Amino acid sequence: MTVKTLTKQEQLNNIGFQDFSMPGNFRFGVDTFYTLADEVRKLKVQKLTVISDNGLERVGVVQRVLDLIKPLGLEVSIFTEIYGEPTLSLLNKAVEFVKKENSQLVIGIGGGSALDVAKATAALADKEDVTPYLKGEAMIESRGTKCILLPTTSGTGSEVTMNAIFEDEEQELKRGIVSGCFLPDLAIVDPVLTISCPTRVSASSGVDAFTHAIESYVAIRSTPLTKMYAEKAMKLFSSNITKAVHNGKDINGRIGMSWVSTLAGVSLANAGVGAVHALAYPLGGKYHIEHGVANALLMPYVFEVTGTTCTEEMTNVASYLQLGDFNNNPHKALDAVVQYLYELLVTLDLPTSLSELGINKEDLPLLAKQASGIERLLSNTPYRLTEQKILQIYEKAYHGIKN
Length: 403
Fold this sequence. Notes:
Rossmann fold
């Protein structure tokens, strides 16, 4: 008898498998930031690198980390060359930096960009040649460098996901790298760190978190366990997003949105996302539109189409968002959810059309072609989107709500 061994990819593609992954340790709460030094001490390392972005270094957040771990007497280096959303070449530069420093631990602090760079760097620092991994020709199956992540925004959930997003400059496309090795040894989520998050970032990252929740909730790879996390994230979102955006010092709003980001991130990490992200990636690659803004803008236009195949889920989502009880009229639930998503953009002062973002209408066919090639995400969507249908979505999003 021949015994077949499934490859890792075959396992991932087989929805009969219901693995569930989270960081090795997860800590949530006000002022948990101050437990960082004790956790570093437990890891028994001598050299570490702090990875963050230039903005957080400028406002003193990186220095707070350095001050906190200074009494440990370790050799500490910093990499803060992150401006905006990261590219594959920047990731390669960070990997070379950590290799040169011989760091045994990477501490990532910041938004999704900084955390994606940090966890990918930790996973690649012991690889002699990282090119196959950056090109998607090889899977990252081990990590030799320890990793601690601390988010300063409530959006990507990067601290609890196996995904990292980078711009591929050659293809003018955003690309996701997926590996279980991206889960850190410890994730510390301190809502206080998000209080200084600017209004626009609070809005775009917050809606990005909701995108993770709703897309993973309806995803083909969803399970009862992932739906549980997504459901709680959506319920918390509706009652906390405006507080966090329009009254950023409201600690309860910040705590709520930190939970939204984390819970949605766990659901995303295990169930995956879908068409909204697939259509957003080309906007980031060619036009450098922020990931959260692209997701937020496209979400109502995409779900107006894809939501037609998941009536029961849309009825539940409408309930989670406190839009009413549609159990006796389930086909109206999608209209209510889409209208909510449209109005959310206006309420949070986010763009409502692609034309507002400076997208050239002539480029829409190219964007549709690029998006149609992101099969990993489109195949997880309960609606088969053709290139022509994707183009129609882009065209509607180009003109916006009022048209």
